Amino acid sequence: MRLDGVGRRYGRRGGVSGTGKGPGGGWVLRGVDLSLSERQLVRVQGDNGSGKSTLLRLLAGIDAPSAGRITGRPPTAYVPERFPAAMPLTVLGYLTRMGRVHGLRRDAAADEARGWLECFGADAYARTPLAELSKGSSQKVAVAQALMARPGLLVLDEAWTGLDLNARAVLDRSVAERVAEGGTVVFVDHDPARLAGAPDVTYRIEGGGLHEVDGRVPPGHGGVPAAGPQVRIEAEGPPGVALPSGLPGSPRTEQTPDGTTVLTAPAPYSDALLRGLLAGHWHIRSVAVEEASR
Length: 294
Ligand SMILES: Nc1ncnc2c1ncn2[C@@H]1O[C@H](COP(=O)(O)OP(=O)(O)OP(=O)(O)O)[C@@H](O)[C@H]1O
Hints:
294 residues, alpha/beta, four-stranded antiparallel beta sheet, 6 helices, 13 strands, binds adenosine-5'-triphosphate, transport
């Protein structure tokens, strides 16, 4: 997917006295070029009001650019900053309907919906009308509807906000899973430690433009570790068999004298990485999560 010279301004008149600045018409984004690829985890950061949600809405196709072009968008799912939970449907009814929108048959959609509700510890709310949900529970529904689509592009705008610890961990792993399965995930989150160490690229929005901060390791921030928790897996392959290529999380590898391979990758990738090794008939000797290095 590509963005070429993309701009977005709100209002038609080009701002104060037609200058394009100020309320009612200023460009929030201007001349944004961006290329997103498969298997890519992208973080977007920036100050309040810099245009992060604006960019995410453009990526998700919820909003159209005022200038430039967006091409090659894969099937996309989006978790907005605020989920409009006012629809007259129960949780299960809504998620089943969303599953059908994504092409599942009715029974499969309902099963998928129940599965995600269970994952997020929200199965007790299946029959609850959306409008009666607490903020955290409706956030779980917002996230579930996006994940059940298994989208090529997953766009998450502060999707972790309001989730309990278990649900946050589920979302972390689901993001890594999506990337491992070939998807692209773009996220904004106020917590600089969110998925720390896992993004392939981090962009900052400043002055209406998009600037690459760096690859792989997001910047440390006020005592927050520069690299997040890492999973350390000791594994052994069948004799003469090389490590499977393209393993999720692009693990660092190290060989020990006794023939064990030690793989280290960002912790959210642990499940996907283990699955990749097991699929290659590798034997797992140990798994440990190590806290961030500073
Ligand atoms: N629908 C809209 N109509 C008019 N102006 C808007 C609209 N949506 C956003 N804006 C303006 O565009 C600018 C960027 O807003 P946006 O929500 O994209 O920023 P953000 O970086 O996501 O902010 P935050 O960190 O506070 O969520 C702000 O000045 C905002 O007031």
